């Protein structure tokens, strides 16, 4: 059965800190790894990674994939209170666009 | 606004009742999904439709029946509701799930969820 595990479960930081979120996966017919941010309602798409070693960057957020070791990390630098959310990673299969989600990491950024 | 919209936002009902959740997207996508998010925040896929055709049907009790009248709509009907059905149900859509290409999966666009509480 496909599995996606995220760590840590939760963390509390102060504004300006850097956080690193981890996502490991075991998926047959793997195609890509996706990161989402969930605040109060709908998860919103952040990144999709398909190749090892190529960093994707958007502002203070960046992510990288290691297909050999089967993990991805999401970094947030210079955190702000607006970064407080649950961050979800998901693995995508090659067929049917089926995404398997991890349980998320809850990030709380204090002023 | 371009979006995935689902109704109702909240649904409180008693065990044994039958209820429906509606979903519509105007993003021009041809694939739609239902996901269930439990209290531990795990998002699990239930169903996926591509152009009105069922393509993913996970191990879900047959009390749950999706219906897609056209590619912009995917509704979820639940019969004989049970306490364990309480969760947040998310509708989502994406570009074609049958696309095969080097660019990876098609990211899902989620609705705001329907919080179902069964008492």
- Can you give the helix content of chain A as a percent range? under 10%
Tally of discrete structural domains of chain B: 1
CATH architecture of chain B: Sandwich
The proportion of strand residues of chain A reads: over 45%
CATH superfamily of chain B: Immunoglobulins
Give average pLDDT of chain B, whole number: 90
Instruction: Please give the largest β-sheet of chain A.
Output: 6 strands, mixed
C-alpha termini separation of chain B: 35 Å
In CATH terms, the superfamily of chain A is Immunoglobulins
Rg of chain B, Cα atoms, Å: 14 Å
Classify the secondary structure makeup of chain B into a structural class. mainly beta
Task: Tell me about this structure.
The complex is a heterodimer of chains A (about 110) and B (about 120). Chain A has a single domain (about 5-95), classed as Immunoglobulin-like (Sandwich). With about 110 residues, chain A is mainly β. Chain A contains no helices and 11 strands. In chain A, strands 2, 4, 5, 9, 10 and 11 form a 6-stranded mixed beta sheet that branches. Chain B has about 120 residues and is mainly beta. Chain B has a single domain (about 5-119), classed as Immunoglobulin-like. In chain B, strand 7 and strand 8 (about 75-80) form a beta hairpin. The termini of chain B are far apart. The interface of A and B includes residues 31, 41, 44, 101 and 106 of A.
Q: Summarize this, please?
A:
The complex is a heterodimer of chains A (111) and B (119). Chain A has strands at residues 3-7, 10-14, 19-26, 30-38, 43-49, 56-58, 61-66, 71-76, 85-93, 99-101, 105-110.
Topology diagram in text:
The complex is a heterodimer of chains A (111) and B (119).
Chain A: E1 3-7, E2 10-14, E3 19-26, E4 30-38, E5 43-49, E6 56-58, E7 61-66, E8 71-76, E9 85-93, E10 99-101, E11 105-110
Parallel strand pairs in A: 2-11
Antiparallel strand pairs in A: 1-3, 3-8, 4-5, 4-9, 6-7, 7-8, 9-10, 9-11
Chain B: E1 4-7, E2 10-13, E3 19-25, E4 31-37, E5 43-50, E6 53-57, E7 64-70, E8 73-78, E9 87-94, E10 109-110, E11 114-118
